[in-house]
């Protein structure tokens, strides 16, 4: 006869797999966020360097070109900031999904542990009853 703990084992394994999958998604999302943040910092650094390098005497056309280029960098920075914000929101969702999956896995592990403990106590009681019965039988002889 299958014990209740054994019957729950497929659900436990499925919950464990879901938790591991969610953890892998969390790690991937953290990497995506780190990459987006790195790209943002690189754009910001490049803008600072480019803006600082333009202090020399230049023609009006060169100054206009430089200004237009800085504006394009600024637009790229705004877009990258939006991407970082989007990746942060996605990370929060993935983290929440992992927490739920992990909580379900933990709950199922706890239920299985309780069933195993109940089964162990029942086996101990059964064994003690057999010992008591044998002792009673010996006393009657």
What does this structure look like?
It is a single chain. By secondary structure, the chain is an all-alpha fold. 92% of the residues lie in helices and 0% in strands. Helix 1 (4-52) runs antiparallel to helix 2. The chain is rod-shaped and about 120 Å long.
Brief overview, please?
By secondary structure, the chain is mainly alpha-helical.
H and E order: HH
Number of strands: 0
Count of DSSP-assigned helices: 2
Task: Report the uncertain regions.
Answer: none
Topology of helices and strands:
Elements: H1 4-52, H2 60-140
Helix pairs in contact: 1-2
Which structural traits does this protein have?
92% helix; mainly alpha; 141 residues
